[in-house]
Design a protein that fits this description.
438 residues; alpha/beta; Rossmann fold; six-stranded mixed sheet; four-stranded antiparallel sheet; binds iron/sulfur cluster
Length: 438
């Protein structure tokens, strides 16, 4: 049986980089590491200009509130601590490090000293926090906090290997090349939270990864873990759709997966937990899919955090045609970038460069045709046409009554709208207005 959810849509996949092995970006001359790479409080610098730093050394720490440390991704000298505007519209501090070419590791980078069976839940939470791990699927919620709140409350840990956005194949390559680390991460989290079931949820467009993971689980002989094969459909990777597909439980609005007994990790996050536990490696690099019709040689690249988009794109041969739009993340939920030199962060799953020809935004749209396509495809069972209309009329409370706050901004409605109504932009406006009011 293949698992699926109601609504959603089938997208052209464009996953041309799935067959290409991940390549490591040579250490750049400089990196600019942002002190805000996760949801929660910004980190404050723990180093000063002129300091020498080593790979894996803490360079920023969060002392109050939700957050985790930030580490140096190369060894060298701190050249500058500067402020930069982000695409989200707030200021962040970046620590600029000049490479000394040694790639020397900090002495704190060492494997955890106890076997998993003897490690407590609190120790695992601390390892994950100290490694600076936050959700690598793009959400960037600090993983330690997710685990902490799930201890003793969940029965199932799900590793989200859906990777349902077009173009992105970073997780697929990780499963093929380091699948065992994803399984190890699942085992560590199951141990921490006390879950009896572990699921690796993979879409059926990755048969090679499914086979490999099934083999890895069989080799471990752990009956508590299994691979669940899901139908390829967007947005299968959304947490609520994933839980519904696998368990047929709906997460009520305002509640979390833990409220229905589940905790969900992205595949690369799971692998990062294994690397932190077994090798002592903090999160200093990630796999980024660099693709889109403007890129000469699309690739999956393991890139150090803080390297600039420009450098990563040059490593992929640069542009073959004029760039219209650079997107961080997938084409459905990613964010268009205005700063082509911005740094790769923990949330950068992909960099997609599109020409005019591929930029699908419809600037000549008509009024709503009342065709119902958006309603039929919405995975959250909303009425996107009315939500857009209420925004146009500034009737935000009406939109709230119709559940606008539960919209996951997946873009499925706008993608299927024959009139080109920019439904998600309208919905975001309403959500912002309602949040401001509160
Ligand atoms: S209304 Fe929201 S959840 Fe529904 S399809 Fe549109 S963006 Fe997705
Ligand atoms: S898909 Fe577009 S045209 Fe059709 S009902 Fe929804 S908003 Fe209107």
């Amino acid at each position: 049986m293949k698992f699926t959810f109601r609504g959603g849509t089938h997208l052209r996949e464009h996953k041309d980089t799935a067959s290409l092995a991940t390549v490591r970006l040579p250490d750049p001359k400089t990196v600019a590491i942002p002190l805000s790479q996760h949801i929660g409080a910004h980190a404050t610098p723990t180093v000063a200009v002129g300091d020498t730093v080593l790979v894996g050394q803490v360079i920023g720490e969060v002392t109050e509130g939700l957050g985790c440390p930030v580490h140096a991704s190369i060894s060298g000298t701190v050249k500058e601590i500067r402020k930069r505007d982000t695409v989200q519209g707030f200021l962040v501090q970046d620590i600029v490090i000049e490479n000394d070419g040694r790639h020397a590791f900090c002495e704190s980078v060492k494997p955890w000293h106890k076997p998993l069976a003897e490690t407590t839940a609190e120790e695992i939470v601390s390892i994950v926090r100290n490694a600076g791990i936050s959700g690598l699927g793009g959400a960037t919620f600090p993983t330690y906090a997710k685990l902490q709140s799930a201890i003793g409350k969940v029965h199932t840990v799900i590793v989200n290997c859906a990777e349902c956005e077009p173009y992105i194949t970073a997780n697929h390559r990780l499963l093929l090349e380091r699948g065992e680390t994803v399984v190890e991460g699942l085992e560590i989290v199951m141990h921490a939270v006390g879950a009896q079931t572990g699921i690796l949820a993979v879409e059926d467009n990755k048969p090679d990864a499914i086979k490999l993971l099934q083999g890895a689980i069989a080799a471990r002989g752990d009956q508590r873990m299994r691979v669940c094969v899901m139908k390829t459909k967007y947005p299968q990777g959304d947490e609520r759709q994933l839980i519904y597909s696998l368990t047929k439980k709906e997460v009520p609005f305002g509640k979390l997966p833990a409220d229905v007994g589940c905790v969900i990790l992205n595949a690369e996050t799971s692998s990062a937990i294994s690397r932190a536990f077994y090798r002592g490696l903090p999160l200093v690099s990630r796999i980024v899919t660099v693709a889109g019709d403007c890129i000469r040689e699309p690739k999956n690249v393991r890139a150090p955090l803080g390297v600039s988009y420009t450098e990563l794109i040059e490593f992929c041969g640069g542009y073959v045609k004029p760039l219209k739009k650079l997107v961080s993340g997938g084409p459905m939920m990613g964010q268009a970038q205005w700063d082509l030199h911005a740094p790769v962060t923990k949330g950068t799953a992909a960099l997609l460069a599109f020409s005019e020809e591929y930029d699908r935004i419809n600037t000549e749209y008509s009024a709503c045709l009342h065709c119902g396509m958006c309603v039929a495809h919405c995975p959250m069972h909303l009425m996107p046409n009315y939500l857009a209309q209420f925004t146009r009329e500034h009737k935000y409370e009406e939109a709230e009554r119709m559940g606008v706050m539960s919209c996951v901004e997946c873009g499925t409605c706008a993608y299927n709208c024959p009139a080109g109504v920019q439904i998600v932009q309208y919905i975001r406006t309403t959500k912002q207005a309602l949040r401001k009011k509160r």
